[in-house]
Amino acid sequence: MRAFWRGVVAALLAASCLAPGTASAQDVIKIGGLAPLSPPGGVETGQSLRDGMMVAVNDLNASGGLLGKKVELVVEDTSGVPDKGVAAFERLVTKEGVVAINGCAHSAVCMAIGPLAERHNIPFVADECWADDVTGAQIPQIFRLTVANSLVYTVASDWVKAAGFKNIAIIGENSDWGLGVIDVFKRNLEQTGAKVTSFTAERTVSDFTPQLLQLKSMSPRPDLLIAGFTGAGLLQMLRQAYDLGFAPTKETAVFAAGADALEPEFWKVMGRDGVHVIANPAGLPGKPDTPLSRRFATEYEKLAGRPANSVAMEGYDGVMVIAEAIKAAGSTKADDIAAALRKLRWEGTRGTVFFSQDKSPKWMYQQWPKVPIFVIQYTEPDQLPEKAAILWPKDQATTDKLLMKP
Amino acid sequence: MSLTDLTGQLVNGLVISVFYALTALGLSLIFGVLRIVNFAHGELYMMGGFAYYVAASVAGIPPVAAVLAASAAVFLLGALLERLLIAPIHDGKVDRPDEYAIMITFALSILLQSLMLSVFGPWSKRPEPIFRGRVELGTLIISGDRLAAAVVGALVIAGTILVLQYTRAGKAVRAVSQDREAAEVLGVDVRLVGMLAFGIGAALAGAAGALMGPVFNVTPTMGIIPVIKAYVIVVLGGLGSMRGAILGALILGEVEVLAMVLIPDTTRALAYKDAYGLALLVLVLLFRPQGLFGTAGRRA
Amino acid sequence: MTAAWSPARLAGLALLLAFALFPLSGVQPYWTYTVTVGFYYAILAASWSLLVGYVGRISFAHAALAGLGAYVSVLAVTLAGLPVAGGVLAGVLATGLLGLGIGWLCLRLHGAYLGLTTIAFAEIMRIAITAEYAVTRGSLGLRAPPLLPGAGPVAYYYAILAALLASLALMWLLLRSRIGLFFQAIREDEDGASSLGVRVTLWKILAFAVSSAFAGLAGALYVHVVQLVAPSMMTIRESAFILTMAVIGGFQNVFHAALGGVFLWVVLETLRDMGDWRLTIFGVVAILILRYAPDGLFGAIAERLNGRRRGK
Q1: How many C-beta atoms lie closer than 10 Å to residue C173's C-beta?
Q2: Which end of chain B is less enclosed by CB atoms within 10 A, N or C?
Q3: How many CB pairs under 8 A join A and C?
Q4: Given an 8 Å threshold on Cβ–Cβ distance, is A174 in contact with B271?
Q5: Is A12 an 8 Å CB contact of chain C?
Q6: CA-to-CA distance for B203 and B68, rounded, in angstroms?
Q7: How much is the ipTM here?
Q8: Counting one residue from A and one from B, how many pairs have CB atoms under 8 Å apart?
Q9: What is the rounded average pLDDT of the residues A12-33?
């Protein structure tokens, strides 16, 4: 019988080790952040998002916190993978006790956690995940601070049409976002008589050479390659497209849809060969040129050691709209925060943020409809996105022609 | 598809085959001498990639020398691992040696992956390649980074074959591979040869990793797919056969490239890329377990 | 009589009691949830040890089989309109049948060759599920309906604990029946067993099918707990993880392997701050155990407990 009691004691000890020191969160308000900080997620995107959030929390605490309490940011890594994102969300809610969550990047993750946000009743501000269905699911707890695929690629398609491309090839990752890229371009371009060829591949694919060779040998040869990838895969594809003499060339332009083309890592991989790549940021630092956007750019560079970009601005705005809503509501209750978000009008780094209550089209619900969208083209090595030539929208364009390699 | 285009695809397949052959050769060599399938082979490939990264990007050694340094480092690692974990099998120190060999190398693979994840993080490392840019051969344009790596890789393969063929150590390795007991009777130090074979096999994988690292990025998980290719190749060519490994690599490289291009459903062709070889592996094991070039009588 | 109430068994009962009381001890729901996921790994590790530890047949397809069970269950519910329990049953049947097929195809293969073939099957399953986006939504994963709609973590905890205990009981009954003896005979000396009239072919295939079905059960239940299924649960690395759990727990005994599953998962979650060093350490531990203590951690503990008793 001694062995029995020894077993019981050992088991109870093991159990008590698990019983957490419930550090009560009375004196701080915890805001959760989700970001892909490891592959196959877009790691550089995740870091920009996280660092943007950190600048926001520093700002909040420097001005006395929220409702007289300090603000604490808890960021969890999603790896850009739905199941890890779900586990990270569960941890933020059930272990950390956050009052609201923002971030994400990678639509698949955003969509997987939608129902969780609803079940736990936690307001969630989606940054940098573009698939229509993120807001299209019309979950009352979900707000979106970035574009929807339909919003951004309709604009991008307008540019493609205006630029006169006739044969478009898309290599897209098989994710909600990547397939959305293919879908929206196809819908918008095929009606104009342009030919659209598309491939899909797993996000972890690293060799695109056979497909690129095949595209290169197609007749007529595609005049635009749309790289619908994120993370390391996007940079690999761009590198290989250049090395094979496919794009960017006089015959074929290349449009990098993923946000990784906006990060310094892009230039590390591409070197001089990244010139003439076209990218598609949802916002540019310094546009609009307000004191807040300028101050953010300086502070971000100080904290992160690299220049700000649209993703970093989203991270900042994401934490800030939650803070603004808490301030307006005077409460950290989920329902109060969500109600305040619905009524919010706040001057952010990228313009006045508000969340539409329209339900048609579906993805418009709690979507910020006025996200700035740009099509840019790099004209020099190591260029920052905001220094690149702006091709679209027309009223802000700094050049009216596409710059190709001679 | 024009002739140039077809040549482009075939050359790309050939280039990829060189890396496949490097990895598969090591796996086959280890099997020949030690009669085990090294399930940690992909991680030795990965260690080669990281050794190259440290040598080229951190220590600033020029690329070709860094490849050699990385191979040497993985040779030592392989020899050490053999002495610690594999030699006890042949010394009769473990129960159920078959299962032990599989499980120990499999556990080793997760250990090495996690170790590199802990030390270097999951992020892609991008060391400088041997050569960067486009190489134009007439109308054919090839990526310079992988072409240069393939040339070095082919030299390494040729060197290995010469060593196995003409040096004393190489002859001993081949002798043990053919008949362990007979070699032992003839005075070959089978323990030493075992260590040597594992070291060389590891070094070949390491060289492949060092050459491919700059082309496809160095990450802790970079070995997972190449090692599966190597499994397919050695099964195709017959486990333990050097010639089979090289032929198998050539076949797989071209089959993959052509399958991807010729399959009409373009939206899925790329997604299934890694499955073609696996289907081949299953078919060979089920219907011709001695491999395409092996002789019958092998107990699978 | 010592066999019935050996100290190790008493300790096992004590552990069982501790598991039964655990959610009532006032822990955060998060830990209840974590241990629930640990039970998933326990079923998987036990099913793996049933095949490897008792019959001597290796498989690296268990994570993929669990994933397959999960996908079948979810699709059976969402496409065919089955209730969740029916979906789980469909998942178990599908993986059992597939296990039967793989077992039959691989009859002639041994050791490393079998390992390679199971890796190939596992990867083909994972790649196909990832590529067939229209049905499976690829690497994004499929949303799964809940096992117990509206229930909290404690209810899920007891449901999965019950499934684990039922699985272990079934495995135990199987192993202590004549079939268990046949398994052992095949493991020790297949040709010898055959010459003694054991129907080697039948029992080898059966072992593969049963082990696969349990893996499918684990996956099908798990997916209705976390309510999401994605191909990332089917990777070879995930299978390596199951191997590590079973080896550390003790892969020659289904109970020890199951304990290894829960234990390793909970420790992993407790030590989250250590990041990937956790798996590095477990890798080292697994290798040391394979080399020096093949009975595993719980095997060694059980032996210690019983041994001391005998010494008195």
Answers
A1: 11
A2: N
A3: 108
A4: yes
A5: yes
A6: 9
A7: 0.88
A8: 86
A9: 62
